[in-house]
């Protein structure tokens, strides 16, 4: 066997250390010094140090490292997991760079979070020089064996990377399966989904690799082949529920197949396993919104805000989304819980303005703050917040539809319906092909504006009235409940709900649930004026409600 063919372990490993520029990241001076001495004794000569995550990021922007050793806890700055996440997000971490996390923590959340971000290794304290040498040697030997493949991937020379993988596989390298895994990843990066799928299937014929099952499930979703995805992923989770990626892909599968509650449950499980992922909390909030699960939606946005400090994914939009949802949840309500939610949302908007002081964020938060005050009957505060936002409203990009819809809703809630509907009609024309925006337009308006919204509201109302007329009150309530989810401010739908609830009360007796339904619906439409075509109906139903539920109302005053 020639020297070039000799196993890598026989090469003087000191030479490998000599080739690597190293970065040590730790907030303690003495620890940085200790690790530096260790690396020098192993053969490393170029060693930099950083005391904070931010300092580490700056150093990685200016130079390329072969190995980064980063502590998990870094005082008040980014932690090791966030450093790794940001390096990947900013595309500053090459395949040819080893990233090692060192930690004193062994909690499930930390370990799973670290694994999720895929460091090359993580080492648990206390660390002796012997342990450090053993772990780094093992990581470096494997890394060096696959270095040419990784280098080709860094330069996007994918054809060369595949040839190098094939050579290692044909030579039955000890890292053969790592090469198979890289080969599948390369085909995925090239967009060659059929080849990616074939590699995973061939791997699974030889051994039940979890990575191959997860990779196969992802390719099946991408190609719309849904039949076997659920059994594959559920099989993985049945053996070990801690595979976060399996939960994520399962959630994506459920969403693609319109099983939104299951999608939410899968994402919620993943957030419990690894709670620091802001992106996953945002996804949970969106799924909860789809399922009309208000409490989970609010909680998910709170968690996104909680973990966004020092994160590359921190965004003012999390604060705005939470406040926007709070407006929806507290509309027409002045109970203690709603008051507390409103105060919390206003406080978070204030915190957002300090963290993200751009003028546009001040305008956006002012629009939503106006709505929060309106919900609590604080009209002067609501108008003041709206007037301040209006002064700089023109600085916003007209393409920011969320802000434009917030503007329309603020105008509607403070009484300027003309401005509100002018904006809503403009948005509906500009976004005539955007179903989600059009749904939001109809949700804000007192009556549906879009053609699809008008038709949907008419169809639901007709079905609900038919059920009411045949005295199937439960079916009618279900239909109008669904209608209110889509058109919460629709006067006719709200009054229909009251009418059905009162009829059910007359037939079956009073209940707290029916009382609350009537109260909420009447509160939503109590601002209609005498000129409104449904005003007399509103007055009649409101008087009926007060008569029937007089004792309930008295108890709560």
In short:
Helix content is 68%, strand content 4%. It contains 29 helices and five strands.
Molecular structure report:
The protein is mainly alpha-helical and 557 residues long. Helix content is 68%, strand content 4%. The protein is built from 29 helices and five strands. The protein has helices at 13-19, 29-42, 53-62, 80-89, 108-116, 129-145, 147-154, 158-170, 176-190, 193-206, 210-222, 229-239, 244-256, 260-273, 278-290, 294-306, 316-330, 336-355, 359-375, 379-391, 401-414, 417-430, 435-444, 451-469, 473-486, 491-508, 512-524, 535-548, 550-555; strands at residues 22-25, 47-50, 67-71, 98-103, 121-124. A five-stranded parallel beta sheet has the order 2-1-3-4-5, with helices on both faces. The protein is elongated, with a radius of gyration of 30 Å. Mean pLDDT is 92; it is low at 1-8.
**Straight-line N-to-C gap:** 92 Å
The value of Rg in angstroms is 30 Å
Structural class assignment: mainly alpha
Number of helices: 29
For the structure shown, list the relevant keywords:
557 residues; single chain; elongated; 5-stranded parallel sheet; 29 helices; 4% strand; mainly alpha
Layout of helices and strands, plus pairs?
Layout: H1 13-19, E1 22-25, H2 29-42, E2 47-50, H3 53-62, E3 67-71, H4 80-89, E4 98-103, H5 108-116, E5 121-124, H6 129-145, H7 147-154, H8 158-170, H9 176-190, H10 193-206, H11 210-222, H12 229-239, H13 244-256, H14 260-273, H15 278-290, H16 294-306, H17 316-330, H18 336-355, H19 359-375, H20 379-391, H21 401-414, H22 417-430, H23 435-444, H24 451-469, H25 473-486, H26 491-508, H27 512-524, H28 535-548, H29 550-555
Parallel strand pairs: 1-2, 1-3, 3-4, 4-5
Helix pairs in contact: 3-4, 7-8, 8-9, 9-10, 10-11, 11-12, 11-13, 12-13, 13-14, 14-15, 15-16, 16-17, 17-18, 17-19, 18-19, 19-20, 19-21, 20-21, 21-22, 21-23, 24-25, 24-26, 25-26, 26-27, 26-28
């Amino acid at each position: 066997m020639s020297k070039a063919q000799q196993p890598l372990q026989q090469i003087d490993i000191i030479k490998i250390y000599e080739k690597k520029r190293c970065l040590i990241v730790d907030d303690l001076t003495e620890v940085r010094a200790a690790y530096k001495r260790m690396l020098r004794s192993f053969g490393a000569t170029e060693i930099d140090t950083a005391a904070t995550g931010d300092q580490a990021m700056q150093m990685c922007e200016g130079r390329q490292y072969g190995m980064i050793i980063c502590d998990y806890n870094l005082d008040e700055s980014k932690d090791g997991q966030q450093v790794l996440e940001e390096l990947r997000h900013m595309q500053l971490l090459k395949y040819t760079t080893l990233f090692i996390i060192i930690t004193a923590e062994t909690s499930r959340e930390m370990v799973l979070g670290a694994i999720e971000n895929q460091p090359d290794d993580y080492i648990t304290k206390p660390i002796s020089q012997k342990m450090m040498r053993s772990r780094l040697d093992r990581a470096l030997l494997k890394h060096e064996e696959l270095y040419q493949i990784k280098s080709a991937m860094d330069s996007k020379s994918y054809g060369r990377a595949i040839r190098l993988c094939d050579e290692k596989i044909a030579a039955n390298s000890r890292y053969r399966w790592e090469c198979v895994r890289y080969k599948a990843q390369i085909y995925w990066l090239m967009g060659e989904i059929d080849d990616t799928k074939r590699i995973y299937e061939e791997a699974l014929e030889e051994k039940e690799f979890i990575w191959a099952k997860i990779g196969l499930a992802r390719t099946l979703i991408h190609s719309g082949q849904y039949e076997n995805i659920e059994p594959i992923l559920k099989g993985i989770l049945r053996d070990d529920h801690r595979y976060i990626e399996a939960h994520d892909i399962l959630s994506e599968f459920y969403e693609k197949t319109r099983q939104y509650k299951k999608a939410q449950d899968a994402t919620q499980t993943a957030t419990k396993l690894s709670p620091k992922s802001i992106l996953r909390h945002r996804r949970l909030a969106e799924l909860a919104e789809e399922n009309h699960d208000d409490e989970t939606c609010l909680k998910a946005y709170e968690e996104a805000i909680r973990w966004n400090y020092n994160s590359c994914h921190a965004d003012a939009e999390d604060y705005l989304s939470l406040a926007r949802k709070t407006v929806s949840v507290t509309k027409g309500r002045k109970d203690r819980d709603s008051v507390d939610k409103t105060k919390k949302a206003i406080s978070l908007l204030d915190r957002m303005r300090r963290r993200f002081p751009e003028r546009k964020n001040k305008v956006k938060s002012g629009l939503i703050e106006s709505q929060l005050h309106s919900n609590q009957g604080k009209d002067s505060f609501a108008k003041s917040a709206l007037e301040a936002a209006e002064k700089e409203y023109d600085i916003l990009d007209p393409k920011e539809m969320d802000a434009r819809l917030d503007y329309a809703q603020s105008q509607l809630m403070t009484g300027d319906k003309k401005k509100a509907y002018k904006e809503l009609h403009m948005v509906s024309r500009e976004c005539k092909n955007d179903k989600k925006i059009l749904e939001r337009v109809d949700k804000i308006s007192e009556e549906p504006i879009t053609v699809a919204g008008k038709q949907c509201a008419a169809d639901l109302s007709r079905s609900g009235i038919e059920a009411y007329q045949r005295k199937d009150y439960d079916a009618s309530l279900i239909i109008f409940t669904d209608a209110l989810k889509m058109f919460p401010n629709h006067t006719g739908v709200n009054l229909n709900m009251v009418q059905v609830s009162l009829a059910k009360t007359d037939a079956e007796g009073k209940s707290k649930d029916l009382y609350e339904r009537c109260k909420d619906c009447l509160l939503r439409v109590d601002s209609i004026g005498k000129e409104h075509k449904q005003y007399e109906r509103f007055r009649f139903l409101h008087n009926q409600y007060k008569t029937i539920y007089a004792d309930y109302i008295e108890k709560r005053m």
